[in-house]
């Protein structure tokens, strides 16, 4: 979901084993000022079929020597124009994107406006699509889009072009020039822009398209910081991309083919097969910013925006991409209504996805440790809200994020939020949480298996010895690397320090061949050779090159040492509390092998029996992981190391398992003051309690005597927050907070909430009066004029320019009955400004003021000779006598 959208909608369990979508709804979308000025049209500059195609390049599966003979099937084409173009195109045995675009645009130019595409032309196109691997070769990208262009695809049902979808249909005999050009635009030029209308959760915005000139990637290639989620609810898409960009950036790079004409091929996987679409660099913009990814910053590259756009196109093919109910066709609405990260991981990597409901146990810990070590990509699907001590939001319920690290010692998980960074943000972009915080609320991890697809080093290349003046020609053995999926490998070589090879030595990336002439004085060096497949995944080896003086000196063969592995650093005895989590990694030098051979490890109890079910030994990094079962009476553990020859060595260490300790109060909560009638809240400090076992804790609150809290006081256990509005007359409360860990052990603290009166409050103001001079005056304060939980006394004053006065005159005030009485003096000809003050027994006061104006018996209102302003009265006014 976006940084402005926080809700979600479940999907049907029948559709996916993971039955929740992430980022499906919005709460507080950005103001209309950001998106409200969108044009009703695209306003976009797009590449048309009339564009001159020049210097367009694309990757190919293999290179073929120029001058190959024309395949028979090309000679059998019947349309003269298509045949001539294809004879030219296949001359070098390779069909490129640019050449295929020329073929179809030439066809469009020659197409008659009457009758449309002929039967011969349609038949020839099918023959071209069917025979690309018969005597010629083309990239998988060109093959895929050509096939969908010629043989049809669900995406061909409509053409949107940044406006309203209109019927299109598959290519057929009789297809018009317009239909042909729209199909070319869809598959070759990326002109079928998504609709400018975007609807999410009942809210609709408009976008305006503009051609971008920004580069595909930054200088360092794709990085996670390129992702800054904008208005779309596509956290489920961007969080996996951030994980992949961080762990496997080459895979992101391999998704794109730059066609050289401001269009790009973008690859996904569906059903394990490559699925390509073409998009152009015409992007939805809002002012100087992109409407979606990078809406708040200027990252300076567009790969994420292109993937968002391409993911829309994939959905038009009817492919399931994580949100079964929200396919709005060629519209950003389709990908902006939430989805599941596992579908994205599978679509981007083509690998199998595993799910782990988060628990603070050995299975989750081992999954994290192994996935991060293997550089598999991890997305966290969270149903938890959390905040740090500064009030910044960390975990967001209904949101997908990336897991970038895990500290097995502290149990802390490092998380990256795809919202990225923006000015004034109230959330953390990167933060750590305890694994226990994610457990128990249904949070789950989606982990891909990219490492299983990467090339493997099968046979380490032996060190080489060359002589000064020697002409070098050395090719890597064919079995050095292998690719599990059979993908073509390309090679690169540098020095071990990352610098380029010496100037006298060249390396052929296709054949893996080193060649050159060793100059006099050349120094020995080591080279890192990297094999990379078409997914951008790689494996490496290091080769040592020695240089001898003058004559060839055969390498010295040192006979291998003999003997079994030895214990070099005995593991110390351990103390693991019952109920406590265990993450203990053995020292790297615990065992050494005299031959320097690799070793494998096994852990059992000292008697050879299996470890208890609660304890797991990870052979990946020689770590013990688990949670000590209650009642465990100590262990004696044996670890055995075995080398490649089958020789072994063992060590034994003891584990003491004392009983668990209840949570303790680390920071006592001070007494709090709570004012009656005022809504208040406060939260316990994060370190109020600590658990010696490191267990997660739950919290409850009662009165100190065990009774429930007063009805006006609420305790929210998830945030450890008290809130409420103390009514008038509330008594002080002695509060007891209890923290209980996963073992059921608990600790408590007690503190006081002291309630204080708010003081008198003017509840009903007294209306101004009009009285007749010479007549009896009797009136009282408004009913319930003042309220207070404490007793109050009352006094009345006349407001004068020199200050309030309390003097004798014709009007008197009875503080008991709170009434005024008297005979209006015959000479009253102005306005009296009166103030009544209520004071409670705590000394707090409030006042109410009002006026008395006068009229004669004929109804004429009398005015004084002085003007009254604000709270001032004329010095000629009558005095007010106060009875107290």
Topology:
Blueprint: H1 32-35, H2 72-75, H3 80-89, E1 94-95, H4 97-110, H5 119-130, E2 137-138, H6 140-151, E3 158-159, E4 166-167, H7 177-189, E5 197-200, E6 203-206, E7 208-211, H8 235-247, H9 249-254, E8 256-258, E9 263-270, E10 273-280, E11 282-286, E12 289-290, H10 303-316, H11 332-335, H12 341-349, E13 354-357, H13 362-374, E14 378-382, E15 399-407, E16 412-416, E17 430-434, H14 435-438, E18 444-447, E19 456-457, E20 464-467, E21 471-475, E22 481-482, E23 490-495, E24 505-508, E25 513-517, E26 525-532, E27 538-548, E28 566-567, E29 574-575, E30 581-585, E31 591-592, E32 599-605, E33 615-618, E34 623-627, E35 635-643, E36 648-656, E37 664-665, E38 672-675, E39 679-683, E40 689-690, E41 697-703, E42 713-716, E43 721-725, E44 733-741, E45 746-756, E46 761-762, E47 769-772, E48 776-780, E49 786-787, E50 792-800, E51 803-805, E52 811-814, E53 819-823, E54 831-840, E55 845-855, E56 861-862
Parallel strand pairs: 1-2, 20-27, 29-36, 38-45, 47-55
Antiparallel strand pairs: 3-4, 5-6, 7-11, 8-9, 9-10, 11-12, 13-18, 14-15, 14-18, 15-16, 16-17, 19-22, 21-25, 23-26, 24-25, 26-27, 28-31, 30-34, 32-35, 33-34, 35-36, 37-40, 39-43, 41-44, 42-43, 44-45, 46-49, 48-53, 50-51, 50-54, 52-53, 54-55, 55-56
Helix pairs in contact: 3-4, 4-7, 5-6, 6-7, 8-12
């Amino acid at each position: 979901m976006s940084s402005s959208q926080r809700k979600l909608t479940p999907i049907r369990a029948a559709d996916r084993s993971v039955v929740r979508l992430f980022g499906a709804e919005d709460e507080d979308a950005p103001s209309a000022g950001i998106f409200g000025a969108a044009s009703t049209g695209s306003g976009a500059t797009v590449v048309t079929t009339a564009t001159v195609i020049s210097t367009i390049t694309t990757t190919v599966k293999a290179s073929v020597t120029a001058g190959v003979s024309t395949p028979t099937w090309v000679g059998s084409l019947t349309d003269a124009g298509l045949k001539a173009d294809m004879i030219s195109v296949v001359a070098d045995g390779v069909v490129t994107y640019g050449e295929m675009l020329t073929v179809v645009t030439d066809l469009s130019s020659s197409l008659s406006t009457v009758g449309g595409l002929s039967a011969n032309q349609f038949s020839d196109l099918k023959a071209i699509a069917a025979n690309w691997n018969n005597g010629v070769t083309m990239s998988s990208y060109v093959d895929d889009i050509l096939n969908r262009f010629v043989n049809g695809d669900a995406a061909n049902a409509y053409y949107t072009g940044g406006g309203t979808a209109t019927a299109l249909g598959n290519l057929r005999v009789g297809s018009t020039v317009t239909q042909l050009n729209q199909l070319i635009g869809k598959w070759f030029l990326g002109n079928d822009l998504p609709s400018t209308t975007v609807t999410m959760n009942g809210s609709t915005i408009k976008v305006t398209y503009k051609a971008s000139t920004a580069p595909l990637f930054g200088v360092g290639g794709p990085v996670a910081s390129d992702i800054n989620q904008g208005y779309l609810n596509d956290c489920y898409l961007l969080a996996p991309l951030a994980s992949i960009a961080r762990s496997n950036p080459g895979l992101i790079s391999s998704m794109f083919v730059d066609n050289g004409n401001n269009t790009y091929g973008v690859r996904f996987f569906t059903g394990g097969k490559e699925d390509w679409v073409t998009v152009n660099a015409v992007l939805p913009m809002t002012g100087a910013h992109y409407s979606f990814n990078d809406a708040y910053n200027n990252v300076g590259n567009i790969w994420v925006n292109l993937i968002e756009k391409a993911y829309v196109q994939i959905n038009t093919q009817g492919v399931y991409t994580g949100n079964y109910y929200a396919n709005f066709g060629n519209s950003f609405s389709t990908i902006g209504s939430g989805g599941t990260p596992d579908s994205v991981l599978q679509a981007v990597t083509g690998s199998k996805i595993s799910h782990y409901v988060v628990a603070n146990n050995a299975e989750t810990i081992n999954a994290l440790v192994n996935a991060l070590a293997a550089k598999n990509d991890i997305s966290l699907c969270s149903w938890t809200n959390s905040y740090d001590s500064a009030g910044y939001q960390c975990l967001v319920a209904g949101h997908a994020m990336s897991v970038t690290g895990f500290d097995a010692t502290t149990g802390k998980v490092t998380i990256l939020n795809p919202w990225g960074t923006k000015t004034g943000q109230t959330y953390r972009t990167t933060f750590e949480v305890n694994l226990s915080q994610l457990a128990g609320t249904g949070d789950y991890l989606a982990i891909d298996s990219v490492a299983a697809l990467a090339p493997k080093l099968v046979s380490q290349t032996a060190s080489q010895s060359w002589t000064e003046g020697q002409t070098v020609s050395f090719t890597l053995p064919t079995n050095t690397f292998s690719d599990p999926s059979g993908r073509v490998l390309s090679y690169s070589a540098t020095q071990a320090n990352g610098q380029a090879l010496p100037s006298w030595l060249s390396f052929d990336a296709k054949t893996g061949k080193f060649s050159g002439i060793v100059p006099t004085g050349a120094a020995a060096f080591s080279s890192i050779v990297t094999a990379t497949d078409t997914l951008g995944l790689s494996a490496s080896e290091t080769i040592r090159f020695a240089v001898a003086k003058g004559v060839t000196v055969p390498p010295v063969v040192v006979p291998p040492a003999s003997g079994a592995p030895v214990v070099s650093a005995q593991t110390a005895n351990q103390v693991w509390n019952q109920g406590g989590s265990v993450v203990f990694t053995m020292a790297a030098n615990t065992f050494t092998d005299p031959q320097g051979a690799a070793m494998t490890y096994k852990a059992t109890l000292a008697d050879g029996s299996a470890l208890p079910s609660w304890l797991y030994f990870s052979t990946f990094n020689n770590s013990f992981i688990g949670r000590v079962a209650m009642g465990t009476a100590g262990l004696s553990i044996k670890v055995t190391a075995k080398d490649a020859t089958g020789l072994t060595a063992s060590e034994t260490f003891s584990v003491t398992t004392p009983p668990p300790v209840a949570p303790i109060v680390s920071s006592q909560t001070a007494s709090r003051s709570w004012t009656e009638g005022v809504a208040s809240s406060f939260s316990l400090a994060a370190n109020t309690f600590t658990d010696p076992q490191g267990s997660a804790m739950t919290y409850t609150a009662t009165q100190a005597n065990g009774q429930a809290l007063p009805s006006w006081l609420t305790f929210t256990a998830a945030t450890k927050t008290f809130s409420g509005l103390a009514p008038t007359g509330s008594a002080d409360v002695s509060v007891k907070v209890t923290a209980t860990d996963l073992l059921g052990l608990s600790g408590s603290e007690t503190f006081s909430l002291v309630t204080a009166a708010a003081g008198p409050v003017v509840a009903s103001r007294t209306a101004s009066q009009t009285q007749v001079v010479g007549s009896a005056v009797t009136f009282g304060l408004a009913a319930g004029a003042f309220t207070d939980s404490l007793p109050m006394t009352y006094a009345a004053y006349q407001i004068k320019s020199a200050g309030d006065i309390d003097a004798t005159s014709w009007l008197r005030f009875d503080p008991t009955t709170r009434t005024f009485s008297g005979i209006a003096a015959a000479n009253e000809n102005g306005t009296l400004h009166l103030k009544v003050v209520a004071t409670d027994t705590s000394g707090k006061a409030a006042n109410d003021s009002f006026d008395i104006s006068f009229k004669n018996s004929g109804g004429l209102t009398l005015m004084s000779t002085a003007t009254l302003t604000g709270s001032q009265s004329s010095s000629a006014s009558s005095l007010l006598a106060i009875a107290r």
